[in-house]
Amino acid sequence: MRNIRLIVAYDGTDLAGYQKQSADKGITVQGALEKALSIICAEPIQIYGASRTDAGVHARFQVCAFRTSGSIPVENIPRATIAHLPKDIVVTEAIEIPLDWKPRNNIFGKEYIYSIYNREIADPIGQRYHWHVKKPLDIESMRHAGKALEGTHDFSTLKGANTTPADPVKTIYAVGIVEKNGHIDISVVGDGFLYHMVRNIAGLLVDVGLGRKSVAQIPELLAAKDRKRIGKTAPAQGLVLEEIFFTPDRLNTVIQRIKGE
Predict the structure, then answer these.
(1) Could you list the residue range(s) of the whole structural domain that residue 133 is in?
(2) Where's the active site on this chain (predicted)?
(3) Cβ distance 115 to 182 under 8 Å?
């Protein structure tokens, strides 16, 4: 028996999210991967992922693991899955790892990037991958608001409606915002995230950028622990799971990069 770790990338536009659902709900990342791996390993395969992304959300670095007694060489798995996966899902790396390694118990944090296009006229080329905000945003105010979210807090205000019970206390290590020619990337690095949390962070920062909320209100909003105190959830298409960190060194490298931007 072997334990195999995969790095998976996908365009989530036409997918029904990561988690496997009934066939009538559409194609999911987990469902497609299990079907493809079961074929190439010649046995039923069940995979375990590090992050359950929503429908419409993308990933550059999703992490999955599965056990198999199949004989396919691990280095052949990325190439072998191509013929059996939808074009929107790609296995970029496969390595053998210890049998006790599990995706959710052996990571040190995650980075998400939320992208916004801030011009009056839309950009049709990138519309599958950003949120189009027409009114001018105050980027500096958004940066200050992002800094106010850093640290360990109860993030109940930023969780999604109808979320499954989870510990709302999370640590955000860094929030960075880069803007170039109307393209805005919000990078958020943390030890874990609640359902819709990053999309709600993006929505809150946009409200600050539009003057609907102020930086000074951030501590009060967090203390309220009330989702109704903030505005709408940013749309799914702007969000990318950018990286999942296997080592504290890599995590710290990314944190320092974001803080230096």
Answers:
(1) 109-260
(2) 54
(3) no
* The predicted structure's pLDDT at residue 201: 98
Q: Which of 97, 118, 142 is the last residue of a domain?
A: 97
178 bridge partner residues: 185
pLDDT at position 202, please? Answer: 98
141 and 30 share a domain? no
> For residue 168, is it within any domain?
yes
| Domain shared by 114 and 189, yes or no | yes
Task: Give 170's strand partners.
Answer: 153
23 and 146 share one domain: no
Give yes or no: residues 170 and 58 share one domain.
no
Residue with tokens 């009538």: 24
Residues 87-99 pLDDT 10s: 999 999 999 999 8
Q: Would you say the pTM of this structure is higher than 0.90?
A: yes
Statement to judge: residues 40 and 131 lie in one domain = no
Contact 103, 19 (CB under 8 A): no
Residue numbers belonging to the annotated binding site: 112
Domain membership of residue 103 (yes or no) is no
Identified catalytic residue from 11, 24, 54, 249 = 54
Positions of E strands within the chain = 2-10, 47-49, 58-68, 89-97, 109-117, 131-132, 151-154, 169-180, 183-190, 239-245
In this structure, are residues 62 and 50 in contact, taking their beta carbons and an 8 Å threshold?
Answer: yes
Residues 174 and 230 in one domain: yes
Rounded Cα distance between 248 and 212, Å, is 37
Taking only the tens place, the pLDDT of each residue in 120-139 is 999 999 999 999 999 999 99
Q: Which CATH number belongs to the domain containing residue 29 in this structure?
A: 3.30.70.580
Active site residue 54: yes
Q: DSSP character for 240? A: E
Residue 113 domain-assigned?
Answer: yes
Quick one: pLDDT at residue 256? 95
